[in-house]
TrEMBL record:
MF GO annotations: magnesium ion binding; phosphatase activity
A single GO cellular-component term on record: cytosol
Position of the signal peptide: none
Pfam families named in the record: Hydrolase_3
Descriptive protein name: HAD family phosphatase
Stored InterPro entries: Cof, HAD-like_sf, HAD-SF_hydro_IIB, HAD_sf
SUPFAM superfamilies per UniProt: HAD-like (SSF56784)
Length: 286
């Protein structure tokens, strides 16, 4: 029976060293050879996903920006964006609180020129984060990102919104102190949903722009019934795909709430949990 396996990246397929183990690569290749489709479903931008996967021999269709952008066989299958007026409202609140943020779009990731200034303030106000950072990690978090083909720096949001055919897929916002208040403010805006991929951030998207969309669109494209899908993840932004998949698998390192709602729990991301799940629940399944 052909299955679609949707796998998250950070905290799931990637180890704590941000690499993909040979065991995980081999298990995915074995699943593909057995006729199954393996997709990557991540909060990262599609370009970023391709860079990570490109370090391995793997080739997989992807759902990036938490399922807001779905691609397979070189084709854009689905793209869900936040209404531009809502984008302005969200940005205004983030500017009011002076939060650093990144905007994920159909044309790359846009980062404000005030990133370093705001990030320094953010870390100063959140000692819980800084106490665990190495000097290298602190520098990486606070230095102003350099422009690349997929990363753009902007001064005024209006200039970004005027780019032809641009679609705003999500806001990524580092946050800890004031997280509850900020979330409440943003939830007041119609048509958006808020999730998180870790304890120190929130992600703002269109209501329909989630990982459930990613797995559903891909299942339809490959003509696989949703009950024949498997989703593997570790955090709250994985919940939508875990809820719709035929079999939901939480990582051993997943948040306890995520573990509770999953059908089964595999090993941790540092114990090749993805490989274990594929071998036990897909390849060995009768």
């Amino acid at each position: 029976m052909k299955k679609l396996i949707a796998i998250d990246l950070d905290g799931t397929l990637l180890s704590s060293n941000i690499d993909i183990s040979e065991e995980n690569v081999q298990a995915i290749q074995n699943a593909q050879k057995a006729g199954h489709i393996v997709m990557i479903c991540s909060g990262r931008a599609p370009e970023d996903i391709k860079t990570v996967i490109g370090k391995t021999p793997l080739q997989c269709p992807v759902a990036g920006s938490n399922g807001a952008m779905v691609l397979a066989d070189g084709k854009l299958l689905s793209q869900i964006s936040i209404n531009k007026e809502t984008v302005k409202k969200v940005a205004a609140v983030l500017d009011e609180y002076k939060y650093p943020f990144k905007i994920y779009t159909s044309q790359g990731i846009f980062i404000a020129s005030s990133w370093t200034e705001r990030m320094l303030v953010f870390l100063e106000e959140n000692k819980e984060i800084t106490k665990n950072l190495t000097p290298k990690e602190y520098k990486l978090m606070t230095e102003q990102p350099k422009e690349t083909e997929s990363i753009k720096i902007f001064d005024q949001l209006e200039a970004v919104l005027k780019i032809e055919n641009i679609a705003i897929q999500k806001f990524f916002v580092p946050t800890l102190a004031g997280k509850t208040e900020l979330t409440a403010r943003l939830k007041a805006f119609e048509g958006i949903s808020i999730t998180t991929s870790g304890p120190f951030n929130i992600e703002v998207m269109d209501t329909n722009g989630n990982k459930a969309n990613g797995i559903q669109v891909m299942a339809e494209y490959f003509n696989i019934p949703i009950e024949n899908t498997v989703a593997i993840g570790d955090n709250f932004n994985d919940v939508p795909m875990l809820e719709v998949a035929g079999l939901s698998v939480a990582m051993g390192n997943a948040d306890p709430t995520v573990k509770d709602l999953a059908d089964v729990v595999t090993l941790t991301n540092n114990e090749h949990g993805v490989a274990h799940a594929i071998e036990k629940y897909v390849l060995a399944a009768k």
